[in-house]
Amino acid sequence: MILTGPEITAAADDGRLRITPFDQSQVNPNSYNVRLGPTLLVYTGGVLDARFRNPTAQVDIGPEGYVLQPGQLYLGHTVEHVGSDTFVPLLFGRSSVGRLGLFVEITAPIGDIGFHGQWTLMLSPIRPLRVYAEMKIGQIMFFVSVGPIAPYTGKYQAANGPRASASWRDDRRPVPVVAS
């Protein structure tokens, strides 16, 4: 079951979910709009490697906006800190942003029960697109969970700002040595 807009408001009021800052005007019939934060990360290495920490550079979105380029992955973040110890959150791009050719979440829309923080957005445009800090970029829906809850305690907990992949923390196998 998905929470309706009035139930999202009620759950934010009674603490079953947390959205900070909460703005009633961002409540939709069955979702909550989230805004793009002022900071982006871009990977700076040539080949990304899932076994290692990949270097990034920070980009600040100024008042004139920032033009995203096709073929480049940008890690953004929500202005809002969102989380729940009760409901399963899912984040999707807003249709108005999708109609501009921007993918907001490439493969990871589901959040874990117990995660609380700013959400990292995986932004990928199909053509050059100027974006602005605080523009409405996505929407989060909340689903009722069934069964015992084991709250999230993982590596992205309490995220503040965009977070690069930490997949290198998952893979503890030794890196093969290539003989020369």
Write a structural description.
With 180 residues, the protein is mainly beta. It has helices at 5-14, 95-98; strands spanning 17-20, 32-35, 39-43, 56-60, 66-68, 74-84, 87-93, 102-103, 116-125, 129-131, 136-144. The chain has one domain (5-43, 55-147): Deoxyuridine triphosphatase (dUTPase) (Deoxyuridine 5'-Triphosphate Nucleotidohydrolase, Chain A). It is built from two helices and eleven strands; from the N terminus they run H-E-E-E-E-E-E-E-H-E-E-E-E. Strands 1, 3, 4, 6, 8 and 9 form a six-stranded antiparallel β-sheet that branches. Strands 2-11-7 form a three-stranded antiparallel β-sheet. The longest helix has 10 residues, at 5-14. The protein is globular. This is dCTP deaminase. Keywords: Hydrolase, Nucleotide metabolism. GO terms for molecular function: dCTP deaminase activity. One of its GO terms (biological process) is dUTP biosynthetic process.
What is the share of helical residues? under 10%
Count of strand segments: 11
**What's the average pLDDT?**
94
How much of the sequence lies in strands comes to 35-45%
CATH superfamily: Deoxyuridine triphosphatase (dUTPase)
Quaternary class:
single chain
The stretches of 5 or more residues where confidence is low (pLDDT under 50) are none
How many helices? The count is 2
Distance between the termini: 58 Å
H and E order: HEEEEEEEHEEEE
Largest sheet: 6 strands, antiparallel
A few lines on this structure:
The protein is mainly beta.
Topology at a glance:
Layout: H1 5-14, E1 17-20, E2 32-35, E3 39-43, E4 56-60, E5 66-68, E6 74-84, E7 87-93, H2 95-98, E8 102-103, E9 116-125, E10 129-131, E11 136-144
Antiparallel strand pairs: 1-6, 2-11, 3-4, 3-6, 5-10, 6-9, 7-11, 8-9
